[in-house]
Batch of 4 targets.
Target 1
Amino acid sequence: MRIRFAKFATIFLAVGIFFSAVAFAEGRKDIDTFLKSYEEFVVEAEKTAAKKDLLSIMQLQTKSVEFADKVGKLNTSGDWTAKDLQKYTELTTRYTKAMSGVMK
């Protein structure tokens, strides 16, 4: 009886670890995808701000709201690393700097 329980416990633990790893991988994938698309958005914003194209800048503001919604959903994930947060902060600082440059 103990051997069956030990075997069951081992299998149960292995399955739990597998599904945790899969869930973590999906969270990582979502964060990586978000950061990549956010960086592309920031580069686009920097180029647009340099041109001072007000119509395009207004369209970027709409996109920035979409990114804020996405990051809000991802914030519930415990998969963010310190490196992820640093990159997100750096990108947000670059975006803010680009948009504030338009006002000058």
Note: Confidence is low (pLDDT under 50) at residues 4-25.
Target 2
Amino acid sequence: MIDDEALGDDAGYRQEHQPLSAKSYPIWIIGFGLIVLLAFGYSSLSLPRHVSQARTLARADRLDQAGDYVQAESEYRTLLAGDSGSEAGRLGMAHAIFADSDQKNDVIGLALLQGMRLDKYDWRRLQPVMPLEYEKLFVTQEER
């Protein structure tokens, strides 16, 4: 601890400015603390749903990679029912639909990709299973 005599003129500062008590903090600090607590509470409440969706996505991806496209489609449907905006789910579902031997559902796979921007890794995943007539509907970076 610093000796008050060593502080010289600043020694009186401690006497004039007492430390804040727990009830005397500025309102903005209390408000900010409450906002942080509310954000933490909300994220804690939504965590189980996100964990469940991540597990469903992982299960669907494993089934898709194993070639069980019918079961993969079922898992992707479950995922998309809970989160229709999941790009990973839409991409995986489109892959499973295109890879499945039943070609009447290919239009659904194309509809799932509508509005998505595919990077080169997603394109490499889809291209081998996508019908050739659908490939020409996509614009590549080189064509822009």
Note: The CA atoms of residues 57 and 87 lie 11 Å apart.
Target 3
Amino acid sequence: MNLIDLRPLRAAVAALVVTGACAVPAAAQEPAPRATFTEKGLFAPGDGPLKLLAATDTVPLKLGTRFGFCADISGLVGEEKLAFYEVVRHPLMTTARGIEEVGWNSPRWLVVERGRSRWCVTHTFKEPWELVPGTWRFTLSGQGGDVVVGEFTAVKAGE
């Protein structure tokens, strides 16, 4: 078997990287999507239309509390429907069946028009085992990175 010495090739590639000769021209790079929160905090309970009750990052640990946000997203590449991934992380909690949970992941399809879309996500505390203090983080990922990230701090009611 003949072995090829790759050291000269590595040096040439390193020289290209250092000089920027292999960089993608700025005009060819797509701008990263941008998101702006339009509503973030506590919402009216239930599964009906979203009605913001209080703008806040602090969530009281109380059954029936509904919290989350809506964000307008711009700079999306593509039209019609685009696939994203919703990732929710929360404090370690143990379900009534003894299963430990730290969050969930779900695919999401967003309708896109002229590079824009809107994403809303909420969660309602429905089970006593969910009432654990700590950080809740909602992330929408796609188009090469995290598009929207929203965090809340869940605290004992009255704090």
Note: The longest strand covers residues 80-94.
Target 4
Amino acid sequence: MKINYLALLSILFLDLILIGIVIAWISLVFALWCVTLTFLLAPLLLLIINVTNWQDFSALNLTISLLLSTVSYFWLLPRAQSFTRYTRDTLANVIEQQKNKIFPKSN
């Protein structure tokens, strides 16, 4: 298999520049998942806090936790899934394109 060394060198330098952007994007997606799961579990966390008497029961807390859970399920969860899918597909596409540039198909 023939290797295009110029393409390999240029892709390595480009990847050194882009690795920070990729790490930041993956961190944002991870943070979105953390917020989504925390909002989904808000009623359960409130129930645990009320059962163990760490806090007195409050209807306002119950309303807010149910609202956060609903918003998370209907708005945040689909976006977290689509951002994760977009990130996976984009990274797979970039890796495939880089592989095709490094190992060109000869006729």
Note: The CA atoms of residues 36 and 75 lie 9 Å apart.
